[in-house]
Write the structure tokens for this entry.
Amino acid sequence: MIKFILNGILRDRSRSLFPMITVAMGSALTVLLYSYMMGALNDMVFVNANLSTGHVKIKSHYSLENTASSPIGTAMTNTNALMNQLNATYPQLEWVQRLSFGGILDFPDDNGETKFQVLVAGISGDFLSDDSKELERMKIRDGIKTGDIPKNNGEILISDQLAQNNGIKVGDKATLISSSIDGAMVFQTMTIAGTVEFGIALLDKGGAIVADVNDIKHAFWMDDADVEILGFFKEGHYGHEKATALKKDFNDNNPKIDDYGPGMILLEDQNDLGQMLQMMSSASYLVVTIFLATMFTVLWNAGLMNGLRRYGEMGLRLAIGETSGHVYVSMVVEALGIGFMGSIVGTIIGLFFSYILQEIGLDISNSLQNSTVFMNNIIRASITPTSFYIGFFPGLLAPVIGALLSGRAIYKRETATLFKELEN
Amino acid sequence: MNLFNRRYFLNLWKPSIIILMSIFGFLTFSQGAEYTAGEILERLDNTMTAETLTAEYRMIIHGKRNTRTLVSMVYQAGSDSSYVEYTSPPREKGTKMLKVGDKLWIYSPLTDRVLQIAGHLMRQSVMGSDYSYEDMTEQTKLTDIYAVEIIGHEILNGSSCVILELNGKEPGLAYAKRKIWVDIDHWLAIKEERFAKSNKLLKISEILEIQQVGRQWYPKHITLKDANMAGEGTEIWLDKVVLNAPIPRHLFTKAALRR
């Protein structure tokens, strides 16, 4: 029977082509949509983790409880000892000090007086230690447009757009005006070592500066204080269970004594990343549900149309003695064959376009002009093992469901009237 | 019956004391009533805006984390020019501020730069205190920028006060509204509440101690609390105040900042 059905599918294109194209298109779209969604969400979590949240983050209790308050004023103190404790107790993570700050960059004229000032948002990390991975993690090395990465204390990078808009050149000096840990105004003169493009609208569109964290901490009177300490699992990826266990262990061992003592939070507790991670885990279900609902509606309809077109064939088969059940099963097997072939073709097409999207990406920088989240300007798809089967099984199932529903009409045919119908 | 029995004495004299206090209060307030709101504010302006002022002042900042004391010398000429030089602690020593007209420059010895402080930087805290640069450099006469009315009388810390309400005449003022308790015996604003346009209380200042400088009274111990800051407020002690002594004009130039 299988051979008979296969021959039917291959030789009678009008019977199989439309459902197969439908299944293939559906499968291809499912693979593409899933890979794109995973790519976008993965990218967002990855960028946020590397630039802002870490896999885990340690902040002062005051800062954890009052997120709206000034971050520098909420810094933890005695953090040199805390860093030693973290490295000794949790060696499975790499611990890094970070400091985000705002301020004004003041450029001098020939007399050393204010020529012009620009508002800046700064990020800082350990860029000068030999064993630090911060330049790679924050994608700074790859983003250098002119000049070089900071190699000495007192050197900073500024966003390429800021440099272009204000005619700032590599080697220029500027004074950062900002606030100290005590809220006092502080000044620190720095040299522009280079310009950088992050490929992240939030950082590139405004005036961003990148400085070594120890330079900034010293300027802000924070030699033994930190606003944030980030932890990254050395194996490279975030795991909910191990991060949760780590958080519990740290917070149990460091109970709140004062407002400026340390408390730990997870990646998923910050920047709505928990919601994103949840979306990632439910993305496959979402895509498959949409696909199945659409496909089986279309294929059910196609099955009904097919039933009308093959009304005579069904009647003849019933008239020559084939049972209704046998005809029904053969229709379902036929749908299974169409689903199988359509799914394979669709998965291949979907993977092909996903690969293109993974390599080239989609530039969404125009839609990110007013964005307030860390997100790459170019979103790429991500082909994961799930991409290989996410479109296949629904593609197999949809025509079968369609056939199961539309094929019920076979049981409504009256054997007594079949020959009369055939005579017409 | 012991005439000097305390209770008897008080019972006998209580009505008289009340009558005397009422007369004293009436006389005091009637002294305030001699003046219009505009005249009171003008006298207040005159007290606080000497021809020149030289003072050493200590600023004690009670932050949320710690308490710091800064010492500085202030030179002021009229309502237009002022020069401040920090002398202690070592971290702030040598920092200088110059205000001429509506422009403010700051010199930081660490950077050896003269930086102009403008725009929203003027609302930043001075050395982490409850004072903003705007507060520190405010020398415009209140009569020029506020419409004033008397809204009441009150005895505050033993001083008879007229309560003035000031409403800004022009937009963009740091404080759209102020409520000032003017001690009419010494012509000092012994308490002041400063409000935003939305009527939100921004800062409260109080003069806790006064001193006589020459013929006039001048604040000695002032407190200021920024309602939006977490600390316990900032105290200022004006230790050595000299009024109307000559100050070299070159002090009010940018060149003086680098010296």
